[in-house]
Here is the input.
Amino acid sequence: MFRDLEPEALDQLCRYAKPTLLKRGATIFAQDDPGDSLYAVISGTVKISVSSPDGRNAILNLIGPGELFGEMAVLDGQSRSADATANANCEILVIDRRDFLPFVRSQPTLAMKFIELLCARVRGTSEQAARIILQDLPGRLASTLLRLTEKRKPDPESRPIAITQQEISEMVGMTRESINKQLRAWAARRWVRLEHGSIVVLNESALQEFAEAGARERQLRHLPLTVLFDVGAYKERPPASARPDR
Ligand code: CMP
Here is the structure.
């Protein structure tokens, strides 16, 4: 994001950025808080999530090293769109909105980069909505694992995805038990390796095929839109015939 800045501008930005250490579980901000800072992750992972009044959680994204978050409220002046929590011990950079806004106004190339980042967020959200509507549960799990692996390229096999099965269930909208059953079936086929608190994708093409097949099957079932948009319905629809055992 900042790599095309002139050295002078980069120096200025570095003067604004305050390095901060966070313990796993620390709240960085909550949904609806005012957006007074922009954040960059140096190490660790930050969880972006929303919760319902009855206490259910949905994880929208996991932000890793080199990525930014908190740009939306900083740029539009509205409140935070989601919660941000340290998902591991983290080192982050914090840039005050009062420093950042005049800076980005003076740097058109950087402003374009932020437009690209916002476009990527919209694309990500559209893909997430499409997954929920078009894919069955195992297909959603396969494409979520692939998306998380994609971020770890070029060497995904040596880069386990640090995520618990509970967190996967909050990303995919499946119960933890269904996630566990499906992952164990894939582990038996050596498509994934399950480690304590992490998962390694071993066979991307098998998961890719599975994700695409899941979407096709779901489309063939011609579910009415009223059913597709029913949150309860997407939370735990029974998988297509014998899917977990494939
Ligand atoms: P902001 O609204 O300031 O605070 C929450 C942050 O989470 C938001 O900025 C983005 O940086 C990030 N965020 C919100 N929604 C999503 C999403 N759907 N996918 C990825 N990141 C998001």
The longest helix spans residues 108-134. Residues 135-221 form a domain with the Arc Repressor Mutant, subunit A fold (CATH 1.10.10.10). Confidence is low (pLDDT under 50) at residues 222-246. Residues 139 and 214 are 5 Å apart (CA to CA).
